Amino acid sequence: MNPVPPAAPRPGRARRAAALGLCLAAVLSGTAHADPPREADGEASPAELTSDLAAVRARLDDLQADADAAILAYADAADRLAEARSESDAARRAADRAAGRGAQARGDAARYAAAAYKGADLSPAVAWTSSRGPQEALDRSAYLALVGGRRSDTVATADAASTAARTLAERAEDAEEERAAAAEEAADARDAALEAVAEQEDALADITAEQTELELRLARVRGGGEREELEDRREAALDRASSAASAGSGAGPAAGAEPASGEPCTASGAEGYPNGRIPESALCPLPQPGEMLRADAAAAFIRLDGAFRERFGRPMCVTDSYRPYAEQVRLFREKEAGMAAGPGTSTHGEGAAVDLCGGVNEHGSAEHAWMLRTAPDYGWHNPDWARGGFEPWHWEYTG
């Protein structure tokens, strides 16, 4: 199996990890005294949990790269299997046709032999007792000579056809062996891909749980000054998103156009850009580090996040927001059929969806129940297809 280079990590993931690290480092620098280092009972401090989270996320990046490589290897093996099947079928059909031609040629030779046998009496008695006399004998002799010649040619053709049939039959057997080998390779590659994806999914569940725990602990240790700083940051993000949403209420740029400024949340909006190909300058950052949405969705989410903070005393936990096209392709390859939107069709690619943790991701939890009641007031919904515990973490902005 040819080695497959690892897929490039999602740009937003590296940005998110860096932003989260800086944000948490700033918060923890002022609150380290409120939470002592790891005690004898093994409890981790927020700083240690932050370090652990960064390490686990780095491991997730490696797992995603491994999954991408395994999926691409399986795709290559599946292509080779399809090609081997086609070649095997073609070789078998050619061998069957050659065998048929050989059988027909041998049948023709047998018929010529029978014809020669039936007309073989050329004795002098026949020549003088026949009604046509010697002329009939001469005619029959000429006919037998013709039949004999055709029989010889047909026998030669039959021999050649038999040789070709044997050769093609051998090729068909070789092709069948190659097909079997390709099928085994594809099966192994599929197993490897499924294993890599399962390992990644298990790690993602652990990361979500750890991120939720970290959010809860940080909410407990933050002092008044840090809360004010976070609120100021939230208000600033809300102002930028609201301004950008107002500025982008027009038709937006033409598809593929680049905004004038590279600074996030200052372009005329995300409208007109293909799904999953919205530039960062047309997206607005959320208070959650590294997460971005289109302007109107971001403004509504930040308001909803403020209401969530008032109710639960902490910001909402976000695992995913805007999703680039390449990231959606990766997910579509990894997930089982129906478990991920096709590339170019996801609401994440429109900058209008988030995946949440921190309890919202658990069907029946207090956080999830609160979101079901409150989020629609801000234009956010857990869509019908995601209800009933199917994807409680997935929320979409509908305005």
Automatic annotation (TrEMBL):
GO terms for molecular function: peptidase activity. This is D-alanyl-D-alanine carboxypeptidase-like core domain-containing protein. Residues 53-94 form a coiled coil. It comes from Streptomonospora nanhaiensis. It comes from the Bacteria. Residues 292-399 form the D-alanyl-D-alanine carboxypeptidase-like core domain. Residues 1-34 form the signal peptide. Keywords: Coiled coil, Signal. InterPro entries: VanY-like_core_dom, Zn_M74/Hedgehog-like. Residues 168-197, 220-273 are annotated as: Disordered. Residues 239-263 have a biased composition (Low complexity). SUPFAM superfamilies: Hedgehog/DD-peptidase (SSF55166). CDD domains: Peptidase_M15. One of its GO terms (biological process) is proteolysis.
